[in-house]
């Protein structure tokens, strides 16, 4: 069943008399009531409910909410929503779930504006700086290239790796890039000088699979960065001393993905079918067990908030405080939610406090390659080798929709910052833009000559996306 917005056509239903009153309960996404119940007229509008809710939960006046009953959205008045539910009886309390809405809207990506040449081997990773002004791309040619997004021209080529650049990550303050390569080396680059800091960091015995900086609100100077490897270890490096501070022998088999969460924990997904949760001293806090095959991808519902920590260039204290405020608001007094995708064709939703999953999500017909929470934390999208994407509820794991259109494996997916669109990269050489509200393809984006391995949508601003793949070209896409 489709579990998001279903619009009711007024002429298809018989409305209740306008003087009818009902008891309404307002419930947050976690299932908690804002107040026991309110007696309201059936002619209460969405705008009036907004005002009532703002007073009940004491939020900012400009915070906008959407309201749902049984996953049907309130568009106009309560009356239309009530009569759309044949099971509801007037003597019962009518439940409405509310969700905060984004205060801005991103235009959909519809066209290619640049094909940037320079890499001599496939492009394996792409990531925008937080504000979207610079794109970093890593390649099999051992280099990282920086591209100016205003002029769509090259800024610099970073040379220091001796093998394929498999992963890279901007520091939260946007001043540094850390990258990992196929020979196990980690490099830290100063973006102001476009130079390698010191020498490549050596320690991993197999290739690097992930890079993650400690979040801004925990480390305002961005001094610590972690790397995970095919060798099963995590290493925490100091940007200052350029040395390994801690080595965690996390798994007996390869680590496929590693994240540094905002509660201070490091999460590691492994080919040994488990997910490890570690503190930065290297002590294991939890082992998450449930998958029957390799865990390929993990994501936190706070990933976007953590990524967008850099507000003010130079003032680290302002950045740290602002990042903490936004992170705490996203957490809302709860724990971080983690989603995982596996070769066993399932996803699982977790909290680090329990070793067992909250829910197991089934439906994909082949391995799940990539998972990502929407920036608002409400939805999860999964990309699979079965050529489809699936949308799931980010709180309870319920299936919402299946998106079909690719004719090859889907490798990666990236959300627009307003959580309204998804951009997927595929083996079939295309990118595709999907609409969350319509739950279908919005735009087909051909342009690459071969498989597309990586895609990123600029997190702040959001008017551009970048992609890279086997054809060695970096493509820029805009509205």
UniProtKB/TrEMBL annotation:
Its main location: nucleus. Pfam families: NLE (PF08154), WD40 (PF00400). Residues 24-81 form the NLE domain. Keywords: Nucleus, Repeat, WD repeat. WD repeats lie at residues 116-157, 158-199, 201-238, 248-279, 338-360, 361-393, 403-444, 445-479. One of its GO terms (biological process) is ribosomal large subunit assembly. It is found in: Nucleus, Nucleolus. GO terms for cellular component: nucleolus. This is NLE domain-containing protein. It comes from Paramecium primaurelia.
